[in-house]
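Our consortium's second objective concerns turning raw sequence data into structural hypotheses that experimental partners can test. To show how far this objective has progressed, the report includes one record in full. It was chosen at random from the queue rather than selected for favorable results. The single chain below, 164 residues long, was entered without modification.
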Amino acid sequence: MLPAIPTGGAVPITLQTFGVVLTGLVLGPRRGALALLLYVAVGLAGLPVFSGAVGGLGVLAGPSAGYLLAFPLAAAVAGALGLLARRARPRWRVPALFGAAAAATLLTVHPLGIAVMGWRLGLSPSEALAAGAVFLPGDLVKNALAAVVAAAALRAFPDLLRGR
């Protein structure tokens, strides 16, 4: 397990979003969302599965709560858009999967995560956006890697999305 990278703020950079979008891209919208709901439920039940090996309901009082709560929705969005990406010609599949991952991250994880982080830390909207912008470059790299890994997994196991 790789350690979190401190940002100087209250929320560190982790590989969690890589796993979230990869789960959606590979498992599809329903199974991806259910897998992430299970992950969040297990963590909230107290198992130390979240960044920094923490768990329990106390994480909902922290600035990263919005990011965690967005994970199931992000997996569903990545999975739904990933289904469309699978229809792309093989040479366009990785860019299409990247678009699905980036859209899921930018439309779900960042808005909910930034909003809750700003609220929990007492930041103004512009301060919260600036604090959240720290994550964008790394998330784009993680989305690109998730697209490459998802394309390889889907190529190796073409029936993976059967049943969605």
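The partners drew two points from this record. The CA atoms of residues 79 and 130 lie 28 Å apart. The mean pLDDT is 91. Both points have been shared with the crystallography group to help prioritize constructs.
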